[in-house]
Amino acid sequence: MKQLGVLDTAFINLEHPNTPQHVGGLGIYDPSTAPGGFVRFKGVIANFERRLLKHTIFRSRLLKVPGNVDRPYWVEDANFDVEFHIRHIALPQPGDWRQLCILVARLHARPLDMNRPLWEAYIIEGLDNIPGVPKGGFAIYTKMHHSLVDGAGGSSIMSVIHDLEPDPAAVPQAPDVVTVDVAPGTMYLAGSAAVNNIKNSVKMLTGGVSVLRDLGKMAVGMAQKKIPIPSIKSPRTRFNTPVGPYRVFEAAEFELADVKFLKDAAKVKINDVVLSVIAGGLRRYLAHHNELPDESLSVSIPLDMRTRRGLTDENNQVGSVFVELHTNIADPLERLAAVYKSSQEAKIYGENSPLVDVLRLAGVMSPAITTSLVSSYVNNGLTRHLPLGISSVVSNVAGPNFPLYSAGAQMVRYYGLGLLTPGVGLFHLIFSSNGIMTMSILGDRNAMPDPAFYRECIEQSFDELLAAAKNIANTDSAAKPASAPAKRSAAKSGTVKKAASSSASSASAKKPAVTQAVKKPVARKAKSASLAKASASAKVNGAVADDTKVVPIKNTVS
Predict the structure, then answer these.
(1) How many Å is the Cα radius of gyration of the chain?
(2) How many of the other CB atoms lie within 10 Å of CB of 232?
(3) Antiparallel, parallel or unpaired: β 405-406 and 318-324
(4) What is its EC number (predicted)?
């Protein structure tokens, strides 16, 4: 038995039917790599069960303290039933991408059963009319409560539920004997709560003194202009209305080589490219609805606090900062430069501000108080007035640079899903792996009734930025004297040429198969080439080469 940490408890306390606090993921798999070339559902269940039994957190349920006066505990469930958590479903005919998005949105909208281990998995068949999905291919959608994992720890969770070899028999078997916890009695929990409340009061007092001291240092730094002052006056949009219980899901894909080209051409970070693309997408989307503000929008960026706090036993170690998107700048390259400046300022602010840990407040107070405040806040529609004007949360997660398998089937694509908070009805989750970057879009259905159109806005924003960068690169190359290329390093020259030729300008449709597959996953029927290329590469080479490592900003969740 283990008591939840402060931040893990915060996500339990923030749970509400309209804004359930779980995150998810959607993987698409090629069964041809499995022994025999096909996969049975019982094989997937057996593979999950064997691996999950070795990790107690997936067999643990919440045990609340009487009266909710103290943080809850994780106890290993003696009645754990893996078949309750893993379900087998299929898309109705014709089984296309739009239907898959609708199904995933509905599954992600449903809260988890808080009386059982806080995760579920769905094996989804019937993907026959999604271009690019290998023959017999299937999807696995998983969701788990945020109290179990944050975005930066997501890669470790993926390793838990996947194999590293196509032959699951090569994976060591789970232990034959599994121990479980005996739930303590009411008197024991009440006594522990009394002791913990005394300890927590002392921690709150000392922590309050520490926060005041850090706030003083930050104020001095701001006065001396060593620490930038964050923007807290961003305009509110349709995504700041009260979030309802229904969701929409969409996704775009991009070649990581193109993203790297943009990063190198503009001398910025990959996350700056991502933010600038989102800014362009929001510009197009809101302008289409005649709702684009004259001032810049802002987003929240989760921060991985592991390097700041050091190692702890909490599942979550995440903070957040605000970054201006400069949606008031029309030129894509000028906007990218402005986003880079804002993200650097946000980084400095995050390194010096104790306010990046503000989410912990939801876990410091007793659950009885916090859950009552959250319910009142959401049920009375106070989200219209209280939160800052944050239009979205943007989380960037690095995936593995090696192939993963489920019951022998290779994962050829992965899309992450975040969570919505009462005052922010849009979440972007970026996942990079094996040369492809996916951008998943989760939104409140009332705020975004047209997710496919927003995905097109994102794709057009990326094309516009890529075309502008390549136009500058080509102009600079043409302006150099004939002898200049000989003075450049071969590696740099080759990189620029390869990036410039790997995909055409955004206005044209002459993109490589993978990029085009991404750009038009559904409406433009191009997802097929992307998935098929990854699958074929895996069959020939056993893996998809990738020399890129994207560092999670957590950037991530959340």
Answers:
(1) 24
(2) 10
(3) unpaired
(4) 2.3.1.20
Q: Please tell me the pTM assigned to this model.
A: 0.79
- Distance (Å) of CA 101 to CA 86, 139, 278, 427: 19, 12, 20, 15
Name every residue whose Cβ is closer than 8 Å to that of residue 493 and which is 6 or more positions away in sequence.
Answer: 485
What the block records as the tokens of 484 is 């200049």
Task: Tell me the per-residue pLDDT of 316-351, one tens digit each, with 9 for 90 and over.
Answer: 556 678 899 999 999 999 999 999 999 988 887 666
- Kindly report the backbone phi and psi dihedral angles of residue 384, in degrees, each rounded to the nearest multiple of 5, phi listed first: -70, -20
C-alpha span between 437 and 416 (Å, rounded):
11
Gap between the Cα atoms of 187 and 168, Å rounded = 46
Run of H or E residues at 120: strand 119-125
Omega of the bond leading into 115 within 30 degrees of 0 (cis): no
Annotation says 146 is catalytic: yes
Catalytic residue among 16, 22, 108, 146: 146
In whole angstroms, what is the distance from residue 434 CA to residue 451 CA? Answer: 26
Instruction: Name the residue with tokens 């209305």.
Output: 241
In angstroms, the Cα distances linking 291 to 156, 236, 238, 365, 404 are 40, 10, 8, 39, 43
Cβ neighbors of 25 (< 8 A, separation 6 or more) are 141, 142, 143, 154, 158, 414, 415, 416, 417
**Tell me: the pLDDT tens digits for 418-448?**
999 888 999 999 999 888 999 999 999 999 9
Percent helix / strand / coil, the chain, rounded to 5: 45, 20, 35
